[in-house]
Structures are given as C-alpha cells and as structure tokens.
Amino acid sequence: MAEKFDSLEEQLEKFVENIRQLGIIVSDFQPSSQAGLNQKLNFMVTGLQDIDKCRQQLHDISVPLEVFEYIDQGRNPQLYTKECLERALAKNEQVKGKIDTMKKFKSLLIQELTKVFPEDMAKYKAIRGEEPPP
Amino acid sequence: MGGERVGHAGMMENFSALFGGAEPPPPAAATALGFGPGKPGGPGAGPPPAAAAPQTVEDVARKAAAASGPFYLMRELPGNMELTGSTNLITHYNLEHSYNKFCGKKVKEKLSNFLPDLPGMIDLPGSHDNSSLRSLIEKPPICSSSFNPITGTMLTGFRLHAGPLPEQCRLMHIQPPKKKNKHKHKQSRTQDPVPPETPSDSDHKKKKKKKEEDPERKRKKKEKKKKKVGGSKGEELLVHFPTSLATLMLPGRDRTRN
C-alpha cells in the first residue's frame, strides 16, 4: 500500500523544493537570474506533468472530505484518523452495551413469564430451543 | 460518514464497515413474520416468508410448531454468526496497531508538525490566503487538461524587475515558530523578529559566548554547504546568485537538520 505513494511523495517533494527556490529567486531578483528563473518555471511544468502521471497508480485511493477541513484549518490530519478511531471505539462500546442489556432483559423476561405462563413458555422454549445464558 | 467520501476503497472501507457493523440492517429472515392461524391477514401482513438460507429439518419442525402454537408475530432470531457491535471491531479488522499509534500517544496539533519540511506558514487557515483544499474542490480552476512547457515567447511574460520584493509580499520567509531553543539563532534569519522573553543572567552569558563563535562557524558552514550544492541540481544557480542566496537554496530538510 505505502509503495504506491512513494513516487507521488517524491514528485511532490521535488515540486515543493522547486517552488521554494523559485520564491527565493523572485524575492530578490537579479537580472542575471532570468535564465535560472526560466528554467525553474519549466521545471514547474514538468513537475506538474510528473505529478499528473502518478494519478494512474492512485485511482483506487479514496480520501474522506472531512480530512480537508483539518488541513484547511492548519491542523494535523492525523488528528482526523485519531478521532475517527476513537469515535468508532466509543460507538462500538455503546452498541455492545445495548446488546448486553437487551440480552439481560430477554432472559429476565423469560424468567418472569415462565412464572406467570408456565405452559405457554414451555411451548415457547420447545420452539426456540435452549437459549444460551446471557 | 459514508456519504461524504470520494470513491469507495482502501482503508476507509474498514472504517465504514466499523460503523456499518455496529448497526446492522435487519436480516432478511427477521423481516419475514410467521403468523398464527387465528390471525390471518393481521397487522403488518406481508408476502409469505421467503427461505433465504438452506434450512435444517429441525428448523422446519420448529417453524411448523410455531405456526400451530399460541404465538403470533413470532419471528426468527438473527443468526449469531452476524458481525455486530458486541465484538471489538477494531480487533476484528486488525486495527489495534493503528489505534495504539494514533490514540496511544499525543498527536501534535499543528499541520507543520505533520509536514515539517514544507516551507511557508502552513498553520494559518486556508481561507485567509485563499489556499484551502475545499475551495479547490468546490471551485475547480479552469484550465486545460494537459501541461505544456513555457516556450520562448511566453517566457517574456516572466521578465522581472531587479531588486527585492516589498516587505508585505515576502510570504516565503515566514516559518512557523519552533519550540526547540537549539535552532533559535538560525531561524532568526528567516523568521519575523520576536522580542526575547527576559532571559536570566546565565542565559545571557551563554548567548554572548555563542555570538563570539558565530562568524567563524558561519563561514565554515557556508563552505560546507557550497560543497554540497556543487554536486547537485543547485549548481547552475550558484553561478548566478550571491552566496547568501545560495545558502538559502539548500533543500528544506538540510536546513532544519544542520
């Protein structure tokens, strides 16, 4: 999985570095740096072409839109993953609690109904078979 | 969660499965209700129950008993094999490693902690400088589908005036402040000047000592960097630019490490 991203990562790093150098050239421009600037501009075009080529390997990758919110707010996108996992676990525990409670309720109801309607409950148990204890 | 996704694949499928598994849709067998003989066409009467799965002889006998017994509205129990929230789904999908990695220790809050080598002030909200990724999706730029090199005539549009940029346009040099004191003196070159917090006497002495060494160390460092750049793609730049620029040209990683 991770190898898929290596080439994209490399291309992006090169691109960012090229842009950084371009920024430095422009921030204090000297007439003699025109040739270098032209070269950097064309590096930028080839860089974009290279990044575009990486699309072929990554067509099956999906990115949740919520993660963009984190990046746009200048927050670490790993926080999104963290919150996602925490939310999943919390929900998991919540549902488990509900299931366990319902199982307890069921056995208690059967127990009480057996006291009041012993014959019907005997029939019920015959249909359902032996219930495993909760 | 599942609704706001780009595509359907990869690791996120596990996440959606995590949530999906926690609240399973009612199984086909559960929707089929068995009614007693006394209540034909009672409330909720639907099509006859369809046998979704192969049934054992015991199951058939039980169903027959249920139909003739005193119970109506009795339905099949959902199978125990189904994946529900009663199992630890993170363990089930082998995500303990990811869970421990992200939830075991504190994840740093800022984007610059995730992308330490990215130049510029990236911790500011994207809406400030119109660089948000969201806007890129909502309002995609109008452009052609291919990238063409900039030829001679087009390059004339990039002829610039000599001299430094005005102060307010120098966004490139603003870096997010880093907490490590070790790098403080180096960042002062690229960062906005920040008034120092009243240092104690001992700190002051240490700083003085460092300052005395500084010119000598700087010179050595410059020579070292020149050698490094000489062999790489930065060579052509060194021909044109003064040395102060050449030192800035070094890749971001090297700057932070040295």
Automatic annotation (TrEMBL), chain A:
Keywords: Activator, Nucleus, Transcription, Transcription regulation. One of its GO terms (biological process) is positive regulation of transcription by RNA polymerase II. It is found in: Nucleus. InterPro entries: Mediator_Med10. The keyword Nucleus applies. GO terms for molecular function: transcription coregulator activity. One of its GO terms (cellular component) is core mediator complex. Component of the Mediator complex, a coactivator involved in the regulated transcription of nearly all RNA polymerase II-dependent genes. Mediator functions as a bridge to convey information from gene-specific regulatory proteins to the basal RNA polymerase II transcription machinery. Mediator is recruited to promoters by direct interactions with regulatory proteins and serves as a scaffold for the assembly of a functional preinitiation complex with RNA polymerase II and the general transcription factors. Component of the Mediator complex. Belongs to the Mediator complex subunit 10 family. This is Mediator of RNA polymerase II transcription subunit 10. The gene is MED10.
Automatic annotation (TrEMBL), chain B:
It comes from Gopherus evgoodei (Goodes thornscrub tortoise). Transmembrane segments: none annotated. One of its GO terms (molecular function) is transcription coregulator activity. Residues 28-54, 177-258 are annotated as: Disordered. Residues 35-44 have a biased composition (Gly residues). Residues 177-188, 218-230 have a biased composition (Basic residues). GO terms for cellular component: mediator complex. InterPro entries: Mediator_Med19_met. This is Mediator of RNA polymerase II transcription subunit 19. It is found in: Nucleus. Keywords: Activator, Nucleus, Transcription, Transcription regulation. Component of the Mediator complex, a coactivator involved in the regulated transcription of nearly all RNA polymerase II-dependent genes. Mediator functions as a bridge to convey information from gene-specific regulatory proteins to the basal RNA polymerase II transcription machinery. Mediator is recruited to promoters by direct interactions with regulatory proteins and serves as a scaffold for the assembly of a functional preinitiation complex with RNA polymerase II and the general transcription factors. Belongs to the Mediator complex subunit 19 family.
